[in-house]
Design brief:
With 447 residues, the chain is of the alpha/beta class. Helix content is 45%, strand content 13%. It folds into two domains: 2-206, NAD(P)-binding Rossmann-like Domain (Rossmann fold, 3-Layer(aba) Sandwich); 300-446, 3-Layer(aba) Sandwich (Rossmann fold), CATH 3.40.50. The structure holds nicotinamide-adenine-dinucleotide.
């Protein structure tokens, strides 16, 4: 393939070297003359393991052509890749000025090129950049109709120091598309990344853009988590590296999709209790652990969002589907749903609850005490059947992914208002009813 690469820093230089090695012809563009000259003389612009021979060979064999003008690059390629810098602005947002000026140069060059051209953004950007910044600028500068420009998002996940090894063995190749139908551009992507065709994952462009930044946030959080645990361990004579080494051996619950799906706040008899234990140990040892401390605050903020979504509905007779902290158990200790019901009742809402796993007369010990302290007349609050709950409710609140009540509501002919706390967009929209134009909140699913 003939590909133009805009921006010859870490990402652009590595991408150019690897694409040329894989048999593609690369037009490598930068606004810094010194970088163009380095590449033209067969030298990489950055220090990176194994990159020197890729650039030297690519240039010597005529598969890397360094140039300063977008026109030459665009006219000699079918696909352009944007790899320019996106540093933080003063307020922490990303400065997209290099992306914008690249799009203008690309667009102007496209004016005099016929046929469809694909522009791939590989720089890290906030969600919406491809659709709201890149495509409109290209269309405006090129004077071409939208359907002659394919804009895709292919974020780069390489790590400096082992960038070529990462390029050659990516965990996945994320490809974001603005259009739902990406069949026109898919063959180009498959050809460009033919070595890892089976790792290509297509996403809507906003999700692809979000995912890139999010992966780095996740890594940053893991480093801080490991360092906080390491510091606590040192203070109490535990080998932190040994503990963390074993922690990651568990790929069922620890390093796995478990506990990583947005939904309800956490609760139950173990997570909050053991988290408090760690924080308390750290306090006794004068070790400050802001990340661990922040977890309880974060969980509480999430509970507040859920409660606000219910109160914002304007309904007074509320039916809650589920009470224990998760389905399949009658453990009510630290269940966020108990706290939610307590709050709503305290605010004068008429709350009825249905949970087939909870038999009030069977509750005992700490479980019984926890709920008695918060919901003293629980038996009066429990619906005997899904039908009882539905008859009572102006609003049904789902806390489970699957339940009898969900099935009844989904199949009901007459509309039943509901709020799904596992659907974060439903919770967000209820709290921020931007489309609310009438007395009835449109964010509540009906029927
Ligand atoms: N460095 C990494 O490890 C890494 C990894 C993954 C993703 N990223 C992301 O990739 C993007 C690029 O990062 P980088 O580290 O390679 O940046 P960099 O600063 O090293 O290089 C960016 C290059 O773009 C050039 N440039 C700016 N405007 C231009 C224009 N209009 N036309 C042509 N070239 C232009 C600059 O002169 C510079 O050489 C950033 O968004 C970054 O967040 C970086």
């Amino acid at each position: 393939m003939r590909i133009s690469v805009f921006g010859l820093g870490y990402v652009g230089c590595v991408t150019s070297g690897c694409l040329a090695r894989d048999g593609h012809t690369v037009y490598a563009v930068d606004i810094q003359k010194s970088k163009v000259e380095r590449i033209a003389s067969g030298l990489p612009t950055v220090v990176e393991n194994g990159l020197d021979p890729l650039i030297a060979t690519g240039v010597a064999e005529g598969r890397i052509i360094a140039c300063s003008d977008a026109e030459t690059a665009v006219h000699n390629s079918d696909v352009s890749i944007i790899c320019v810098g996106t540093p933080n602005a003063n307020d922490g947002s990303l400065d997209l000025s290099a992306i914008q000026s690249t799009c203008r140069s690309l667009g102007l060059a496209l004016r005099r090129k016929s046929g469809r051209h694909i522009v791939i953004n590989r720089s890290t950007v906030p969600p919406g950049t491809a659709a709201d910044v890149v495509l409109p600028l290209l269309v405006e500068a090129s004077n071409k109709p939208e359907n002659e420009i394919g804009v895709l998002v292919v974020p780069e996940f390489l790590r400096e120091g082992c960038a070529i090894a990462d390029y050659d063995d990516p965990p996945f190749v994320i490809v974001g598309s603005i259009d739902e139908d990406y069949s026109v551009d898919a063959p180009h992507i498959e050809e460009m990344f033919s070595r890892f065709r089976d790792r290509i994952r297509w996403l809507p462009s906003r999700e692809a853009e979000m995912l890139k930044g999010l992966c780095n946030v996740f890594h940053a959080m893991k480093v801080s988590f490991a360092n906080e645990i390491g510091s606590l361990c040192s203070a109490i004579s535990v080998d932190g590296r040994r503990v963390m080494h074993e922690l990651v051996q568990d790929t069922k619950l620890n390093i796995s999709p478990a506990y990583l799906r947005p939904g309800l706040p956490f609760g139950g008899s173990c997570l909050p209790k053991d988290l408090r234990m760690m924080i308390s140990m750290a306090q006794s040892e004068n070790v400050d652990l802001p990340l661990l401390r922040g977890i309880l605050a974060s969980n509480d903020a999430h509970l507040q969002r859920a409660m606000k979504a219910i109160t914002a509905s304007g309904r007074r007779r509320i039916g809650i589907d589920g009470l224990s902290f998760k389905a399949g158990t009658d453990d009510l200790r630290e269940s966020p749903i108990v706290l939610m019901a307590e709050y709503l009742i305290g605010k004068g809402f008429d709350v009825l609850i249905y949970d087939p796993d909870v038999q009030v007369s069977f509750l005992s010990g700490a479980n019984q005490k926890y709920v008695q302290d918060r919901l003293p007349h629980l038996s009066c609050r429990m619906a005997k059947s899904p039908e009882d709950l539905l008859e009572h409710s102006e609003l049904v609140v789902f806390t489970r992914d699957k339940s009898t009540i969900r099935t009844i509501v989904a199949n009901s002919i007459s509309p039943i208002d509901s709020l799904d706390l596992n659907s974060l967009s439903a919770v967000y929209d209820a709290v921020h009813p931007k489309h609310d134009i009438g007395a009835t909140s449109p964010v509540l699913a009906a029927g």
